[in-house]
Amino acid sequence: MTKPPFILAIAGGGSTYTPGIVKSLMVRLADFPLAEIRLYDIDGERQDIIAPVVEKVIRDHSQSIKLTVTTDPEVAFSHAHFVFAQMRVGQYKMREQDEKIPLRHGVVGQETCGPGGLAYGLRTILPMVELIDLVERYADNAWIVNYSNPAAIVAEGVRRLRPQARVLNICDMPVAAMRNIAAVLGVDREAVTVNYFGLNHFGWFTQVLVDGVDRLPQLREHIARFGLLTEDAAATDPQHSDPSWVKTWRNIKPLMDHFPEYLPNPYMQYYLMPNQIVEHQNPDYTRANEVMDGREKKLFAAAAEYKRTGILPDAFHVGVHGSFIVDVARSLAFDLRQRHLVIVENRGAIANLPYDAMVEVPAYITANGPEAVTVGKIPLFYKGLIEQQLACEQLLVEATLEGSYEKALQAFTLNRTVPTMQHAKAILDDMIAANQDYWPQLEQAYKEGIAQ
């Protein structure tokens, strides 16, 4: 087992999440000692804006931790013990297209769900594999803790292309839901243990245990009135409390009004009530614009203020995103066998789903990786929904690997947010035009198809 203090690289060092993650690391130094933090990004200009803020956060807690800022993968990953991956291929400019193009066709415009998530996946799979290869070339058996979206598609791509890679795919959405659950129940998040099954952004909580007692019946009563928010909505952290997020948490109510057996992941709203979602989305101002005008602008302004005055305004926070990734890294580092919801190869955990499906279930995180908790068989309704979504995601991965326009079209058509094959084709064709710098093979296949 690797001994501390650790060398940690953050791939996507120019992300607006980076200062919050580093702050999470700093307040947990006694639990997860660090010798060096390395920021790595292919966009050096953006990273250089974020880096001084990160430096300030580190120095407020430690004078001994080395900070390295680089665009050179060898410098970033040589002898690293852990890599946190949070890449956003195409940055917010492409996220905006992912959201607005479907909306032009009356279809859900969302970063990780529906056509937007499929487009994002087409951009991200191969860069993620490239990152894995760089880490394996330069690091010493490092663990990659991957936060890069869309996590389900990225995880499936990695399973196909690099099945032996030391990658643990995680998502903070279930953990954010657990934070809200704990707030509603009036307990600490650490006191809540859940049972859960599904795919990433496509799953259900089946039990919510506090001191061994299932509190899901109590949650049902609360959700019927307020959604998955406290009565005054004051418990949500800033990362998930923008107006669009408040609406997301409230939309759990209609989902459970129809299917009260289990508590759904909030993202199920996009698949089970897409028409209502589209009715309330602004095609000219989407979540990407909200983030660019909010979190990104605030952090960049704070960085400029700090550069000018030496005073760092309060521009970021430590939320579930940062604390969760530190929890997982600690459990990997010290073989703690802590129980977390993560994305793993099924291997029978959900008995009536394919063995090789990348599912999201509770698992014990060990020094050798995750050990999934056995879920057993799931009811037919949920099995059917999951199998359709799984086929959509697997076709999308095959489209990426083969440069296949036909399989991309099949994936878009199969997605529950897309009403018809005509919608699927129109959206995909617009997506190909917008992504010509990222999908050269797919664009060529599309052009060849037209010529035939």
Detailed description of the structure:
The chain has helices spanning 18-26, 44-59, 73-77, 91-104, 114-138, 151-161, 173-185, 216-226, 243-250, 252-258, 268-272, 274-279, 287-309, 320-334, 380-402, 405-414, 421-434, 440-451; strands spanning 6-11, 34-40, 66-70, 82-85, 143-146, 167-169, 192-199, 202-210, 213-214, 263-264, 338-345, 358-366, 369-372. The strands form three sheets. Strands 3-2-1-4-5-6 form a six-stranded parallel beta sheet, sandwiched between helices. Strands 7, 8, 9 and 10 form a four-stranded antiparallel beta sheet that branches. It is globular, with a radius of gyration of 21 Å. With 452 residues, it is α/β, with parallel strands linked by helices. Helices cover 50% and strands 16% of the residues. The termini are far apart. Helix 4 packs antiparallel against helix 5 (114-138). Among the domains are: 6-169, NAD(P)-binding Rossmann-like Domain (Rossmann fold, 3-Layer(aba) Sandwich); 387-451, no CATH class. One of its GO terms (biological process) is carbohydrate metabolic process. Pfam families: Glyco_hydro_4, Glyco_hydro_4C. It comes from Serratia inhibens. Keywords: Cobalt, Glycosidase, Hydrolase, Iron, Manganese, Metal-binding, NAD, Nickel. The record marks 111 as: Increases basicity of active site Tyr.
